[in-house]
Design brief:
The complex is a heterodimer. In chain A, about 70% of the residues lie in helices and about 5% in strands. In chain A, strands 1-4 form a two-stranded antiparallel sheet. Chain A has a two-stranded antiparallel sheet with strand order 2-3. By secondary structure, chain A is mainly alpha-helical. In chain A, helix 2 runs parallel beside helix 4. The N and C termini of chain A lie far apart (about 40 Å). Helix content of chain B is about 75%, strand content about 0%. Chain B has 14 helices and 2 strands; from the N terminus they run αααααββααααααααα. Chain B has a two-stranded antiparallel ribbon with strand order 1-2. In chain B, helix 2 runs antiparallel to helix 9, helix 2 runs antiparallel to helix 11 and helix 7 crosses helix 9. The radius of gyration of chain B is 20 Å and the shape is globular. The two termini of chain B are about 25 Å apart. Classes of the chains: A mainly alpha, B mainly alpha. Chains A and B meet through helix 4, helix 9 and helix 11 of A and helix 5, helix 10 and helix 12 of B.
Chain lengths: ~290, ~325
């Protein structure tokens, strides 16, 4: 393996990792604060992708339109999230977690049914906008500009999320709710509003991820599944809803995935699962376990 | 067991056994699948409903049994079929014991869920790349065996014969699990689900009991896979897919996890919904999803819990006397 291979693997891994993080960001938020393992997250990610596709079509004309479509998708999905919270999640707050699991699974099925009814079962592929269609060449290293875009988008989303949680009033409020919602309520924090806003933020992130990762994906009713498992693993390895942990875990998973496709090309995905198993055996609490959010 | 439950059991038993006389081939095939999936769901619920451990990769055990039996039958191995089923069960139990020994010591709850999910996916990938096991295409045209008892031999190659064999096997396995769940062993499992710490204080070997439940559950799940291979006559890596792992979970939760027969009822209901919506693209998922959602929202204790509540209301207990073992209290404790 040459140095070039190594650099290529690293960049590829980073791009995969950031794609995973974009999906995992909302998942980890809702997991950290509401303690829900949201099966429907992948489905809402998929709806975000379909909404963005409806706006930009197969050949987006500019990068700004592309980003705008992603933001609109995020807002649409956030509205859906608000509705889902009102109808489903809110009613199951005090019930055993397992029932939340079946409820979110039901929402997943409803979403994929709706997607099939509205957009059909046909596949669609979308090209990146003109500015992101080429490649950046550094020496001999060839980096698709869309990969670069995904990496930057992932880092930007992480920085905003991290700042919002650790530096703002709202974020600190959410942290306290996550740690002890009963005590927070006693101190006068409006816990139901905090929880609902977490759900909305989580769904916003799902829709946004769907829009941003639209290009180079095959749009089909099973799109949600492909990212969901990796995102779950990033959340768990990161340490139970810790955003920083999920960020590092997503990078780790991405690099392992891309290295394994270089080293053992006939068993894709295998190395990732083995890594997850070994990692959790060694450190069941996750990378940054113990501290929520 | 109340007399109402006995009546329901007898009626459903007769309905299943007499099915080949009044239903067509397609429905008989589905009914056979229901029997298999019901046993699979019961094995999952021994873990979740009774022991409080959630496995997200239970399909792995199903696949182990299905592939072992399917492979043995296809290569024309001369072993008796019942021995193959037993071997499948033992292999599944052994794998469960080994993984349980490693996993259960470290984790429970959500971590265990992800662990088992990852292990099942590894198994699925290995199967998908093993040429001996037919790669992604799976093992096709698996022959149905003959039951040889020495004195008499029963040919199971016809659909009806194998269907009745499935009825007997499912009933036996359900009975076995019922005995396990309702004896002292099952009682201990329930108490350690409700409060592992206190149960440990009482001198119960908590890790040991968890491991035993995991092993039994894995073994039975593997046997349900072994029954499946000759019935469907094809086994694919999809049987180890995490989507298949969610089937017993959904069936159990739908039926009611704290009731022994809940998973069976859930499997039947699920198959019914699936059958009735089979021709609608997109709508099928919508209908299943909405049904699930309505049930979870209206009756978080599952259909069995709902029925139980209705029965209690019908009996009109004198006001003010609370039932000491009401479902909601138990649910919160778990």
């Amino acid at each position: 393996m040459t140095l070039l291979d190594l650099a290529f693997t690293l960049v590829n891994g980073l791009a995969t990792g950031m794609a995973v993080f974009l999906v995992a960001a909302g998942l980890t938020l809702i997991f950290g604060i509401l303690k829900i393992l949201n099966f429907a997250h992948g489905a809402f990610f998929m709806i975000g992708a379909y909404v963005a596709y409806t706006i930009v079509g197969s050949n987006p004309s500019s990068i700004w339109l592309f980003i705008l479509a992603a933001v609109v998708a995020g807002i649409v999905v956030a509205v859906l999230g608000f509705i889902a919270d009102r109808i489903v999640l809110q009613r199951l707050r005090n019930v055993d977690e397992a029932y939340m699991l079946i409820a979110t699974f039901a929402v997943l099925m409803i979403c994929s049914g709706i997607v099939k009814l509205i957009w059909g079962v046909n596949y669609a592929s979308i090209n990146p906008p003109p500015m992101l269609d080429g490649a950046v060449i550094i020496g001999q290293l060839f980096i698709p500009s869309y990969s670069l875009f995904v990496i930057i988008a992932g880092i930007v989303v992480f920085l905003i999320l991290d700042f919002a949680i650790h530096r703002t009033w709202l974020g600190k409020l959410l942290q306290s709710v996550a740690n002890d919602s009963w005590m927070s309520g006693l101190l006068g924090i409006n816990v139901p509003v905090a929880l609902t806003s977490t759900v909305i933020a989580s769904f916003l992130l799902a829709g946004l991820a769907g829009g941003l990762l639209l290009a180079n994906q095959t749009l089909s009713p099973i799109l949600g599944e492909s990212f969901l498992l990796l995102a779950f693993m990033a959340v768990i390895i990161g340490g139970l809803g810790n955003v920083r942990g999920a960020f590092i875990a997503a990078i780790l998973l991405g690099v392992i995935e891309s290295a394994s496709s270089l080293l053992m090309p006939n068993m894709p995905g295998m190395a990732t699962y083995i890594f997850v198993i070994l990692f959790l055996l060694a450190k069941p609490q996750g990378l940054l376990g113990g501290q929520r959010i | 067991m109340s007399s109402l439950k006995v009546t329901a059991l007898v009626i459903s038993g007769i309905a299943f056994a007499s099915l080949p006389f009044w239903a067509d081939q397609g429905i008989m095939f589905l009914a056979g699948l229901v029997l298999i999936e019901a046993v699979f769901a019961l094995s999952w619920n021994l873990l979740f409903g009774f022991t409080g451990l959630a496995s997200f990769g239970h399909a792995a055990f199903f696949a182990i049994g299905a592939y072992l039996t399917g492979y043995a039958l296809r290569t024309g191995m001369e072993a008796p079929f019942l021995l193959m089923i037993l071997a499948s069960g033992l292999l599944g139990a052994a794998v469960a014991a080994i993984t349980g020994l490693v996993l259960l010591r470290r984790t429970t709850g959500i971590h265990l869920a992800i662990f088992t999910l990852a292990l099942a996916e590894v198994l699925r990938i290995i199967i998908g790349y093993s040429t001996t096991l037919g790669r992604e295409d799976g093992l096709a045209s698996i022959p149905r065996p003959t039951l040889d008892f020495g004195v008499i031999a029963i040919d199971l190659s016809s659909g009806r014969a194998y269907y009745w064999f499935l009825c007997v096997a499912a009933a036996l396995l359900a009975w076995l699990l019922w005995v396990v769940c309702h004896g002292p062993f099952g009682r201990t499992l329930v108490s350690l689900r409700q409060d592992p710490e206190r149960t440990a204080f009482m001198g119960v070997n908590v890790p040991g009991y968890r491991l035993a439940a995991f092993t039994i559950s894995g073994g039975i799940a593997s046997i349900s896979g072994a029954l499946y291979a000759p019935w469907a006559q094809i086994v694919t890596p999809e049987s180890a897919h995490w989507i298949h792992s969610t089937q017993p979970m959904l069936a159990s939760l739908l039926g009611g996890v704290h009731s022994f027969w809940g998973p069976v009822l859930g499997t039947v209901l699920f198959s019914l919904i699936n059958y009735l919506t089979r021709n609608m693209v997109g709508l099928a998922e919508l209908v299943i999803g909405i049904t699930l959602l309505v049930i979870v929202l209206a009756a978080p204790t599952g259909v069995m819990g709902l029925l139980e509540n209705l029965r209690k209301r019908a009996e009109k207990r004198p006001a003010g006397i609370a039932d000491p073992i009401e479902m909601p209290a138990e649910r919160q404790a778990s």
